Amino acid sequence: MTDNDTDFIDAEVGDDSAPQGPSKSARKRERLALQDLAEELLGLPRAELEGLGLGVDTWAAIEETARIKDRRAMRRHIKRVANCLARENTEPLQALLDARATRARQAAARHHQVERWRARLIEAGDTALSDLLDRYPQADRQQLRSLVRAAQRDVERGRPEGPRKLFRFLRSLLDSVDD
Length: 179
Known about the structure:
By secondary structure, the protein is mainly alpha-helical. The protein has helices at residues 3-13, 24-42, 46-49, 56-64, 71-86, 91-124, 126-135, 141-157, 161-178.
C-alpha cells in the first residue's frame, strides 16, 4: 500500500465530529410535504383557518391567493405559502386536516351503510325489513314498508324516485340514532 492509498482511506473515513444535517433528499421531502400542506391549507375555509394562530406573512399570502388565476403562478404561490408555513407551528393545521379527513371517512362510511341497507331492503324485502326493525325499533314500520314496496316497484320500472325516497328515509333514521 502506498502513501496515496492511505491518504484516500483517511479521507473516506473523515472526521465524525462534524455535525451532519439532514440529507438533500430529506430536505426535499420536507419541502414537498410543506407544499402539500400549503395546498390543502389554501383549500380550507377562512373560518377554520382563523383558529390556527397563523402569522401576518402567512395571512398575507393566503389572502393573495384569490387574485391568482394562472396555474403556473399558483404553483409558485403554493411554494411561497409553504415557505411561510416553514416558519409556523404546523401541528394545529395538521390536527385540523386530520379531523376533517376523519369526518369525511365517517361520512363516507355512513353513506355506504345507508346504501347497503337500501339495496338489501329492495332485494330481500320483508326479511331485511324485519332485520332493520330489530336493529332500529324506533323506525316507523308502516312508512318504511310502503317506501320499500315503492322502491321495489320503481326499480322494476327503471325509475329512481322510490329508491331515492327510501335512501333519504334510511339516512335520516340512522342519523337520528347517532345523535
